[in-house]
Amino acid sequence: MGISEIQSSANLNATNWDFASQPDNILFSEKSCTCCVGFIDMVDSTRITAGLTRSQMSKYYSLFINWVNGIIRGYGGKVVKNTGDGLLFYFISLDDSHIKTVRNCLNSAITLSILHRNVNKKFISESLPDLNYRISLDYGEVSFAQTVDSTTPDIFSTTVNLCAKINKVADPNKVIIGGDLYRIARNLSGYDFHEIKETISISNRAYPLYTVSEAKTIGEY
């Protein structure tokens, strides 16, 4: 079947498409809220899973996604999107101070980082390859959209885009955050923040990035 035939059968020919008659399959909310946004992405998953059977591949992704989902929800976060080899999540700020939200978001990400070795033991016990992942967080305004065939809203904003972009800069199994989140979290006790050399460009200005980890006690240095 040629392209023109496909367009005709699917009613996708622009000259015949009645946009006004089409249902709103995606509903955009006019409201926005301030959130901590997070993204966790598996490292090199395409190459790794290429050598797995269908059953092994299914188990590989399933173990990862369900494990991450459980930790995020345990800290009060919401997972909104499964990208195949990653998850997008957020924590809504429920008060003006934002401190509890920021702590929950940071703690969830640091927990995922700390438990890397533990979760790999599970993968090894299932005869699966080692798992590595990058975690990125940022903070800002987020808007919501709802598809008619889903009960889970999607999120979108510059903050979401930045969070996905800075994920590529993170070291495997570590947490990286954007400057907007750092400005709120930098004075919180219990965390170690370190600015990294890499930056990303936003409107021709350098956007700073930071690693974050659990603060060590004197005896641990």
Q: How would you describe this protein?
A:
By secondary structure, the chain is α+β, with helices and mostly antiparallel strands. The chain has a domain at 31-175: Alpha-Beta Plaits, CATH 3.30.70. The protein is 35% helix and 31% strand. The protein has helices at 3-10, 45-49, 54-74, 99-114, 116-125, 158-167, 179-185, and strands spanning 26-42, 78-82, 86-92, 133-147, 154-156, 175-178, 191-195, 200-202, 205-207, 209-214. The strands form two sheets. Strands 1, 2, 3, 4, 5, 6, 7 and 10 form an eight-stranded mixed β-sheet that branches. The chain has a two-stranded antiparallel ribbon with strand order 8-9. α3 runs antiparallel to α4. Mean pLDDT is 83; it is low at 1-22.
Essential attributes:
alpha+beta, 31% strand, eight-stranded mixed β-sheet, globular, disordered N terminus, 221 residues, Alpha-Beta Plaits
- Indicate the overall shape: globular
The CATH topology assignment of the domain at 31-175 is Alpha-Beta Plaits
Strand content: 25-35%
Compute the number of strand runs. 10
Sketch the topology as an H/E string, one letter per element. Answer: HEHHEEHHEEHEHEEEE
Instruction: Give the low-confidence spans.
Output: 1-22
Oligomer: single chain
- How would you sum up the major sheet? 8 strands, mixed
Helix content: 25-40%
Average pLDDT score: 83
CATH class of the domain at 31-175: Alpha Beta
Q: What structural class do you assign from the helix and strand content?
A: alpha+beta
Annotation field: number of helices = 7
Radius of gyration: 20 Å
Intertermini distance? 67 Å
State the CATH superfamily name of the domain at 31-175. Answer: Nucleotide cyclase, GGDEF domain
CATH architecture of the domain at 31-175: 2-Layer Sandwich
